[in-house]
Amino acid sequence: MRNIFAGGWEKAKLVEVRSLDLPEVLEITPKKFGDHRGFFSETYNRQAFADAGIKLDFVQDNHSFSAARGTLRGLHFQNPPMAQDKLIRVTHGEIFDVAVDVRKGSPNFGKWVAIVLSEKKWNQLLVPAGFAHGFVTLVPDTEVLYKTSGYYSPLHDRSIRFDDPEIAISWPAMETELQLSDKDRNAGFLADTDTGFVYQETGK
């Protein structure tokens, strides 16, 4: 680790970035440097992200703990002018993490993409503004941390049903009933939700 950070670290590629089937949604994997003591990782480096084309200012960190496997949180977003970009990672456990395009006029409106985030993979998911986010825990005692580019605003907080048939997310099968909050269980459908987002093609 000393050789990496003693004068030559700025030349190292500290993050790997991969676009998913919804190209605005990115899987980001920071580098991990380990030895017999353990490991070190820069889970967020503003310059490294900017070098990868991700230029966001994060203002809030959130931390959730889910005791049971099958705890589902989502689908959540904040509408303009308090929209949030989210950078999600798992520090303990494993989740099936989902992003849904809710931008009216988007060719991908209502479409979803998902990946597994885990402490073992050490990957992250960047969910940009204009996308709803949700996840279900795949193992007990899972902890999720995420950064947001905007502050939490109850007035702009919105939810969409996790089982909306228009979106038709293929959530992993669970042996027991999903654990949901009343807010998520009673959320509305995408068709009935004015998300506040309007799709704009790049460069327009």
Account of the 3D structure:
The chain has 204 residues and is mainly beta. The chain has a single domain, classed as Jelly Rolls, CATH 2.60.120. The chain is built from three helices and 13 strands, in the order H-E-E-E-E-H-E-E-E-E-E-E-E-E-E-H. The protein has helices at 2-5, 46-51, 182-185, and strands at residues 15-19, 26-30, 33-35, 38-40, 60-66, 72-78, 86-92, 94-101, 112-118, 124-127, 131-137, 142-148, 157-159. The longest helix has 6 residues, at 46-51. The chain is globular. It starts with a helix and ends in a 19-residue tail after the last helix.
**What is the CA-CA span between the terminal residues?**
44 Å
Low-pLDDT stretches: 1-11
Helix content: under 10%
CATH architectural group: Sandwich
* Strands ordered across the widest β-sheet: 1-2-10-7-12-5
CATH-derived topology: Jelly Rolls
Number of helices: 3
